[in-house]
Amino acid sequence: MLYHEDINPSWDDGRKSSAKRFIQSREEKLILDLAFPRAGERLLDVGCGTGEHLLFFRNQGCSVTGVEASFARIEAAKQRLGHRADIHAGRAEELPFSDNEFDIVTLIASLEFAEDPKKAISEAIRVSRNRVFMGTWNKYAIMNPRGAVKDISNSQSGESPVNLLGGLQLVHWIRNMLPSIPIEWGSVIFFPFDWYTYLAGIEQRMPIRKNPFGAFLGFSFPVRTSYRTIQDVIAVPRGVHSKTRQPLQGVAIGMKGEENHCRSSSS
């Protein structure tokens, strides 16, 4: 559902404290380590909010597009980025884009607010041609992730998230959609925010990869298309004499797993 809302001006201002700037830098490190955005790639940020992550990826050299359900946030994102981003109104569960349109699709602190997070992940996979990155607040973190979402996530209204998610649940959903796909994952933010005045150095020394205890989880996985075009000989009809039996170019004969079956049935 698309909607109007009043943006809380203190949300972006809250990022200015030293502790919250440090937390933001930890989020960005996890995103860079797992999503690995490269200059020139087309990137879609789903639930882009006021455009903070769009600007971050733009500074990495990506061509950025955002989709957002809140008209107020869309206007704020346009004011932030101007002509440097293409921003659309839309829902995570019904992305207004074609299949395989983007190199990278990101969902950062947006699955918590999706009406159907599984459908949102499925849509992200559909419009990606290379990889998907998901960043979400950890339901089972040691520190209180609801406070994290309220303070520094996309929840400008200050309301509690609709649905916090756990890492095992997300991995289960991904595996059901893309069996045997490799998943890179990790987490950051291991202490309450107020502690980072003293514990920033300890946080930086803690391992990120495959660490399930941080408040902010990140997952990255490749996307592989289900169909491919291969060459095969088309059977010659009776009464027609062919001088050669060379295959015609670009004949799609089925899914990857059905290749051997198609070859045997055509012989």
From TrEMBL:
<dbReference type="InterPro" id="IPR013216">
    <property type="entry name" value="Methyltransf_11"/>
</dbReference>
<dbReference type="InterPro" id="IPR050447">
    <property type="entry name" value="Erg6_SMT_methyltransf"/>
</dbReference>
<keyword id="KW-0808">Transferase</keyword>
<dbReference type="GO" id="GO:0032259">
    <property type="term" value="P:methylation"/>
</dbReference>
<dbReference type="GO" id="GO:0008757">
    <property type="term" value="F:S-adenosylmethionine-dependent methyltransferase activity"/>
</dbReference>
<dbReference type="Pfam" id="PF08241">
    <property type="entry name" value="Methyltransf_11"/>
</dbReference>
<feature type="domain" description="Methyltransferase type 11">
    <location>
        <begin position="44"/>
        <end position="129"/>
    </location>
</feature>
<keyword id="KW-0489">Methyltransferase</keyword>
<dbReference type="InterPro" id="IPR029063">
    <property type="entry name" value="SAM-dependent_MTases_sf"/>
</dbReference>
<protein>
    <submittedName>
        <fullName>Methyltransferase domain-containing protein</fullName>
    </submittedName>
</protein>
